[in-house]
Structure formats: C-alpha cells, structure tokens
Design goal:
Blueprint lengths: L4 H9 L6 H14 L1 H11 L10 H7 L8 H8 L4 H13 L5 H7 L5 H14 L5 H10 L3 H14 L7 H7 L8 H21 L27 E3 L2 E3 L8 E4 L2 E5 H4 L2 H6 L4 E4 L13 E3 L10 H17 L4 E5 L5 H14 L3 H11 L7 H8 L5 H8 L1
Helix pairs in contact: 1-3, 3-4, 4-6, 5-6, 6-8, 7-8, 8-10, 9-10, 10-12, 11-12, 15-16, 15-19, 16-17
Length: about 400
C-alpha cells in the first residue's frame, strides 16, 4: 500500500482518537502500510506527552516481522514498568524476533503479574528453547495462578522441546487455588492451560484446545484486537491508566508512568509522591517523597504502611500540597492504600471507600488479601491514629 509521510502522520495521530471507528480505521490502514510506517510509529512511541503512544505497540505487533526494526526500541521500553511496557512485551512476542528473548526472560521476574504473564505468552510465541527453564521457574515460584497459566500455555506453544517441563506442570496441578468466584474462574482456566500444555508437549494434541473469551487476551493481559474498552459509554484507552485519579482534593492515585512524567505532574499540581515500588522515577526525584515498597500479591501489612503514609499525607495537606500515591499500573496497590487512608482518616466504611475510588478509577482491581485487610481495619484504626499523630 503506497502512502505519503503526511498521511502516515495523520493515521498515527488518529490512534489517540476516542472515536472507536476512526481508531480502528487508522489501525487497519497503518497495518496495511507496513514497513513504511514503522519509523513514524517508533518516533511516536517515544512521545511521552502523547496518549496515542499506548496503541503504537499494538500496531507494530500486528505487522509481525515487518516491524523487526522497532525491536531495539521496544526492548528499551520494557524496563520502564508502565502500561507501555506491557504493550512492548506483547509486540515483541508478535514480531517473534529471538533477540528479544533475554529481555522477555528478565520480564518474567517482574513483581507485576500482568508483565510476567505477557512475557510468558511472548516467549511462547517466539518458541525459543532458552525460555523453557525460566518458564518452569514461573510455574514453581509464582504465587498466583494467572502467571502460572501463562507459563504453562507458553510451554505448550514450545511443544516437544519443553518436555523437561512435564514434571513441573504435573506438580502445578496439585497447587492450591485461591477461593472466591472471581479467582475461581481464572484459576480454573489457568489449570486448564496446564493440562493443555501437558497434552501438547506429549504430542497428544498438536493445537491448543483452549478457546473462548479470556484465554488468549484479557486473561493474561495480551491484546490482539484493537478494541478500546467502554466505560460509562466513553471509549477507555490504555493511556488512561497513566493518568492520575482524584480520591480527595489533596490525594490522587496513579501509575509509575504518571509519576515519572514531570511535566504532567506539574500541570496537575502534584507536590508530593508516595512510591509503592522498589524503583523510584529519577525524573521526579526532586519532589518530596515517601518510598515504601508494597507487595503486588497482598502480602504487605496495610496497618504498618498506613502508620507511615497517614502522617506524610497530613503533612502535605497542611502546607496545601497534593499527594500522588503510585504503583506500577495504579490498579491494585495504590488504590488499596488510598482506601486504607479513607478508612483511617475519614472513618469511611470499606464499601464507601472502595466506591469513592472506583468511581474515579473504574479499572481498579484490588487483591483479595488487601480487601480482607481493609475489612479488618476497624480494630486498628485507633492505633494508626496514635502512631500517625
């Protein structure tokens, strides 16, 4: 498909459109243009202030090996630990360049389940035998079933070359699952992925038997279709995850991607940061901050965290500041801690605290262990108040 540079720029710009039909037309046309559009897409990938960049990896991935020249830039983005990193991992899996394997293996060790899971799926798509042992490590060491299921699916994709994984896969079927309607659904799907992988590696089935909504896309965070989600009738773009969400006039939650964007934070009048990750953004290190790493798997003690966070937020509030609590994507840890603050400082019932947060950030998904801790905060609220005073 022949097209001039000006038209390519127009199509790339349309990726930020909230008109779903306009967005999909731009996606399809860029995909058809192919190699001619790659350099422009890579340039757009590095425009930190442009929301459309979150869809660029999707377009590059759709081109497959045609977009191989974008691989170094995609690898560089994976280490940034934002939603863009997830998109970059997915694109690398679709382009299937073996040079991305070391980067993807490293991403398997990320504490965020979504990045680990997407890296596993990407490695399965590439099919490189170097991934077998690291994927077995995910089966053995990861505490949650979704990344285990992704690792199993990837091993099944590799096939007979992953026959050394069969003992670990068979043992994984004996692991306990978390209870609950929501987790029960995903856990069972992940176990089906393990069974499917065993059959494929043993040669009992050439193709995966997994089908239906959720297996290859939203179960593991991978996106293969350009369909923005709808929230209250409005198109929801992945770029919205790297926008901060107001909990109170002086308290916000968000992602690492938002926290590292100094210009954006200045525009939003953010003056203080609470970082729940091991890695703190260098670009905004000059702002007053509190760094208290928090588990993404519900294993941190909210009471202990709140004992440090409450006085920090109150101190910022007294000087007219605005605090941003951030984690990797702003969907689990920062909302959980913000809900704890609402419980501790305002005495909000758990349901009211969660409702306030989800009305501002609809895609929140707090770990069940943190939800349980929020329910139990009644007994420790006076203690937190004393420690914070």
């Amino acid at each position: 498909m022949s097209i001039d540079s000006g038209e390519i720029e127009r199509l790339i710009d349309a990726l930020q459109s909230r008109d779903e039909q306009k967005f999909i037309r731009a996606y399809e046309q860029l995909k058809a243009v192919g190699e001619t559009a790659v350099s422009g897409l890579v340039e757009a990938l590095h425009r930190d202030d442009w929301p459309g960049r979150y869809w660029v990896p999707l377009v590059l991935g759709s081109m497959g090996t045609v977009a191989i020249s974008a691989v170094p830039d995609l690898i560089a983005i994976v280490g940034r630990r934002s939603l863009l990193s997830v998109g970059a991992v997915n694109a690398l899996g679709s382009i299937r360049d073996p040079s991305a394997v070391p980067c993807l293996i490293k991403a398997l060790g990320d504490e965020a389940d979504v990045l680990c899971s997407c890296a596993a799926i990407a490695l399965g798509r590439i099919g490189d035998l170097r991934a077998v042992d690291p994927l077995i490590g995910v089966l053995r060491k990861r505490r949650t079933w979704v990344p285990r299921g992704a690792a199993a699916f990837a091993l099944g994709e590799i096939g007979i070359g992953a026959r050394g994984a069969i003992p670990a896969l068979e043992k994984a079927l004996c692991y306990k699952c978390r209870k609950g309607i929501f987790f029960g659904r995903w856990n069972e799907r992940a176990r089906e992925a393990v069974r499917d992988a065993i059959d494929r590696i043993k040669g009992l089935s050439k193709e995966t038997k997994l089908e239906g909504h959720g297996y290859l896309n939203n179960m593991w965070g991978t996106i293969d279709m350009p369909r923005p989600r709808l929230q209250n009738g409005l198109v929801f773009s992945p770029g919205d995850l790297d926008r901060i969400s107001e909990v109170l006039p002086y308290l916000y939650i968000g992602s690492y991607g938002a926290a590292e964007n100094a210009a954006y934070l200045k525009d939003q009048n953010i003056t203080h940061l609470v970082c729940l990750l091991e890695k703190y953004p260098v670009t905004t290190a000059s702002l007053p901050n509190l760094c208290i790493p928090m588990s993404d798997h519900g294993e941190s003690d909210l009471r202990q965290l709140l004992a440090q966070v409450v006085p920090f937020i109150e101190g910022a509030k007294e000087v007219g500041g605005r605090v941003l609590i951030f984690c990797a994507l702003g969907v689990n840890r920062s909302p959980a801690l913000a809900a704890g603050y609402l419980r501790a400082e305002l005495g909000c019932p758990t349901g009211e605290a969660l409702s306030r947060i989800t009305s501002s950030r609809p895609f929140v998904s707090i770990h069940e262990k943190y939800l349980s801790q929020l329910e139990q905060l009644d007994d420790v609220l006076p203690v937190i108040a004393r420690e914070g005073s």
